[in-house]
């Protein structure tokens, strides 16, 4: 699609005359811009615009700006050069990128994949459109302002079944209209789930990405799988899926992160056996500040247990400032003699470790989906920039050292997507009971390896982008965000070292005795 600009045409000679005190025109990709009234407002200053007045500024413009700047300021366009056609494509909402490696191979027209059916492709299109239209604009705004996700967006996501889909396959999807029939809830598998995760990441706002109901993705699973009272389970899931109530997972403490066995929040039964009294703290809890329900890991008399705690007396939530956006709603929680009915126990008393561990696989896999997709976005942006940016009279891409960096970035991205798809295929066909045994290790290793790859990609990308890779606005916005935030994935849901160890320990369990 070309930029929609007025139909008036000019000759290049006519444009050249607008190089005066009162009139500053220039050409970008055959479109004529009248910047005379924009000089004061231009973030790059007046002088630079005066320097290009009357000329074709295409190459200098793309050396400094993203194409989306022209979309935003389209009202400065007054026409086009007679007989010439725009050559730069403006993507439509929902379009696939035409940049090589910008889409996973299964979405690249020349490639085939055994894993993806029509419903996956239909869902991908619908998710891309929904993300471009509704999620990205809000993500960009909230990432900057640090405000929390709006109720309006939550309502929209609820209406199209996106909140339901983010919980992965299951009965909670039956009978729900998913993005206007893009996929039937009974057909929804982990590849659909992967698509939902990966498409949303394209907003490239890591803090908002977590702020946008990540607490639900990791917290509500425990209710769906371990709440014994069907009435309570239905009430809570209805409230959360409809967007009226928010939920989060509160496991980590200042005392214990990946080492969940070291938790210190206590739950002591009252003498009449009807309640637990909860005391303690939780730290780094995503979405905690605005949550109504806390799925909380506690110490009971003989082990760990998991309780559903409703916001009320004795609970205080305070935002924690981290290196990503406050939009994530990262929280410090204190529980001070909080009275919780015993019916709110999820799973068995003292066997909460199973509740926590069974939750981890989907959480870690979702994080791998997201990290890999974000890596790909960095590859896309870097490929575009390397073709656009001129230094030492050459495009960056014409420098072998830059091509080497891109080669490494592409290889890391493609190999991890392939590994992800292989594991996702096993998740679709392996019974849930077997998954913890056989997939816990591979998923842990995948997540560990993804975030190591993210580390390499962030490092190479910033070198390609220079100062722009460290600047929150303008051309390098995506690179800066990725470089500042990829570490969250290397820590949350299990630190790299813990996951690596888990993967190898699981392999040790299955080592045949006879190999020596
Ligand atoms: C329709 C025309 C233009 C519009 C709407 C526009 C808009 C902007 C905006 C929004 C920025 C802030 C950075 C960003 O968001 O990318 C910017 C920065 C800048 N612009 Fe423009 N601009 C235009 C044309 C030009 C031209 C022709 C030049 C020629 C030299 C120029 C030079 C700069 C410079 C030097 C910066 C600072 C870049 C940086 O900090 O990296 N702009 N412009």
Automatic annotation (TrEMBL):
**Pfam families per record:** Acyl-CoA_dh_1 (PF00441), Acyl-CoA_dh_M (PF02770), Acyl-CoA_dh_N (PF02771), Cyt-b5 (PF00173)
GO BP term, pick one: fatty acid beta-oxidation using acyl-CoA dehydrogenase
Keyword hit for Hydrolase: no
**Superkingdom, taxonomy of origin:** Eukaryota
Keywords (A to Z) from UniProt: FAD, Flavoprotein, Heme, Iron, Metal-binding, Oxidoreductase
Describe the location of the Cytochrome b5 heme-binding domain by residue ranges.
7-82
Q: Which GO terms describe its molecular function?
A: acyl-CoA dehydrogenase activity; flavin adenine dinucleotide binding; heme binding; metal ion binding
List GO terms (cellular component aspect): cytoplasm
Q: Which Gene3D superfamilies match?
A: Acyl-CoA dehydrogenase/oxidase, N-terminal domain, Butyryl-CoA Dehydrogenase, subunit A, domain 2, Butyryl-CoA Dehydrogenase, subunit A, domain 3, Cytochrome b5-like heme/steroid binding domain
Cofactor(s) listed in the protein's UniProt record: FAD
Is the keyword Metal-binding assigned to this protein?
yes
Q: Which family does it belong to?
A: Belongs to the acyl-CoA dehydrogenase family.
Q: What is this protein called?
A: Acyl-CoA dehydrogenase/oxidase
| Organism field | Lasiosphaeris hirsuta
